[in-house]
Structures are given as structure tokens and as C-alpha cells.
Amino acid sequence: MALTALFTGASGLAANSTALDVVGNNLANLNTTGYKNQRVLFQDQVYQLLSLGSAGDSAGVGGTNASQMGYGVLVGTVGNQFQQGAINPTGRSLDAAVQGGGFFVLRGVTGQVYSRAGNFDVDSAGYLVDPATGARVQRYGTVGEGGAGVPAFQVPGNNDIRVPFGAGASGTPTTLVRMQGNLNRDTAVGGTVSSGIQIFDSQSGPQTLNLLFTKTGVNTFQLSGSIPGATVTIPPTPITFDGAGLLVSPATLTANITGIPGANPQTVTLNLGTPGQATGLSQFGGASTAAAITQDGVGAGSLTQVSIDDNGNVQGTFTNGRTIPLAQLALATFNNEGGLIRQGGNYFTTGPGSGEPLTGPAGSGGRGVIQGAALEGSNVDIAIEFSRLILAQRGFQVNSRTISAANETLQELANIIR
Torsions phi, psi of 394, nearest 5? Predict the structure, then answer.
């Protein structure tokens, strides 16, 4: 007499014990950034064929079914569940969360790893890293490599992201100066009204542009300019006003600047206002208040802040008000995310079943978008895990009863010889 219930029950204990372990691990990682829960799927074990069954015969006798007896259960797979976790704002500029598919790409000591946890920091060498391990966050494309008047912050061929706080960035040369105010109508012919404003040259250096209005006739002025150590040429176009004191023409004049040591020649548009309106220069009775009030240039600045936008661009903010993209975060997707191998530390690596990483920018190729100043929470659902916990506990319980019943049966068999 072969009593297999003991071994069948033992397989149930082992399988449900694994289920309890997995649920416990999920609940332990309830607050782990970017954690993806796991689930256990069981499958039945080998079967003994007691009867093959038969087909019906020509005499009208029906067929019989096969008869088999199973020998327990085993763990088929412990699978990863990649549903989206909640996005939690943190207010910290170097935090990032993926909304949708994809993994951040990092380079550790053993090679590339992939993570949903975007709690990054800048190390002493100026690289964007995972502060827990020092793994360097990887970038995609040529963003930050410079060109077209934009300084380079990344090294071509090296995908480690540099965030060089304190690095300088050029300003932008002045191209527009806006004028506003009154030119006293009672100014004598040959009389002047002066104004000045700081502008910036092609090397982001500050220069003082002095402007001089000279009255040349009734309702007519002429504008000239100067910069110490340089030459400013303004066409001698008369500035005229109508009988109501409003500007007639021109709306703009052009100042050509040359001779600033080391700087390129520069053209600045002088906006005098809208003809027929008092939005710029005017000629009324009373004091002269005409002045250059604004200009569009900025001086050099240094990097003080960073932020991450929806496309994964690491945007640098400089003290001169400029915002320049420093790099673009790489996101990797896989043909089979379930084939990834967990490494601990919120990391995954590729496995035989995952396929190779498909790396690109956020928002393309099925990749999600990135939300800056936020982190993705764990996707563990307490209600579901408690339900699994109850099922695993009951499964363990009933299989232990199977073993107890088999033991009692064997005991009764032993008692026959008494």
C-alpha cells in the first residue's frame, strides 16, 4: 500500500510557504521607491496514469476516460508585476519619476543596471548618481554637448551625466534697446537731452551706451550714440513729431557698434515707439524725461540650479537668467520586462528572457514621460497582499491537515497488527 498523501501535502506546504515569503517581501517593500511587487503562480506536479481510457467500439459500447492521480504542487514562477506606482511630489529638483513604461539607465561597477527609482544626487566629482550606490545616471543623445552658441557640459562618447554647479555660461549680446519718455518741445535748436543704459557685447561684457538727442528744428530731433573706447554709428535719420507731440517717424533706428576690444561688431535696434501713440518717445511741453529703459542682453552667469522636464532634459538655471539643457536622461524598455533579473538596491539587469534594452528619450517609442521633483512609490496593494496572505495561510493549513490525516491513517494501519 503506497500512501503518497504525506509527500503531496509536503509539496503543498513548500509551495504555500514560498507564497507567504513572497507576500512578506512585498509588504516589507511597501514604502520602497519604485518597487515592483511579485506574485507566485503554482502548477500541478507529475501524474501517475492509472488507466489510459478507451474509445467506443462498433457494438455501441461507449468509451472510458483516462484515470490519473497527481502527486502534489510546485511553484511554477515568481513573476514581477510592473504596474504603475503612485507618483509622489517631493519638491526636490534632482528627483524624477517615470510615468509609463521604461527604466532609468545607470552604470555601476558591474555594468549597466536599470531602475524605476529616480532619487538622484550629484557627487563630489559633479556626476549625477544614485547616492546609495554611486552608480552614474546615463544620458541619451547629444543634448549638452554644445554648439550654436551653447556651451558644452557633456563629453561626447561618455554617457555619464555631469552637473557642473558653478560652471559658467555666456550671456546674450544686446540686440534691442527700448526708448520711452518726453523730449521737451521748448528745447532750443541745438539743445540736447542725454540718456544712458548698460548693454552687453558679444563676450557678455557690460558696456555703457550713451545716447544724445539733439534738437535740429521744429518738432525734429536727431539721435547719436557713444561707448567709451568704441565707435557707435547711428544713421542721421531725423526723429519727427506731429503737432500733438506724438511720434511720426521713425519707429526704430539702428546703432552699429564696432571697436570693442575682443568683441565682434554688434547691431542694436533702438525702438523709439509706435508712431501716433505715446507709448515710446513724445514731444510735449514740460521736462525732458526721454531715456533708454530696457535692453534684451544679459551678462555671463554660473550654474546654480537644475530641474528635470517631461522629456527628461536636465535643465540648468544660471545666475544670468538663462536656462540651458545640460543632458537628457536615457530610458530603456524591454520586449519582456518580466524577464529582467532583480539585483537588489532597486536595480534590475537583463536576463535571457528580457531581450536587449531599447534605449531612447522619454516620450518616444512607447517610453513614458518623466515627472521632475517627484518619485514613484511602490505598486504594492495592501488589500491584494492581505488576500494573498490569507490564501497562502489557508493553503498551508489545509496541506498540514492532509499530512495529519495521512499520519493518522498510517497509525491505524500500524494498529492492525496489535
Answer: -65, -40
CA 210/CA 194 separation, integer angstroms: 7
Cis peptide before 250 (omega within 30 of 0): yes
Residue with cell 524577464: 339
| Ramachandran region, residue 125 (left: φ > 0; alpha: ψ -120 to 50; beta: rest) | alpha
3-state secondary structure 236-294: CCCEEECCCCEEEECCEEEEEEECCCCCCCEEEEEECCCCCCCCCEECCCCCCCCEEEE
Residue 249's CB is within 10 A of a number of other CB atoms, namely 12
Name the residue with cell 556626476.
Answer: 127
Distance CA 215, CA 212 (A): 10
DSSP 8-state class, residue 71? -
Tally the C-alpha atoms within 13 A of residue 356's C-alpha that lie toward its C-beta.
Answer: 3
Q: What percent of the chain has pLDDT over 90?
A: 81
The pLDDT of residue 340 is 96
User: DSSP character for 127?
Assistant: B
Cell numbers at 322, concatenated: 538663462
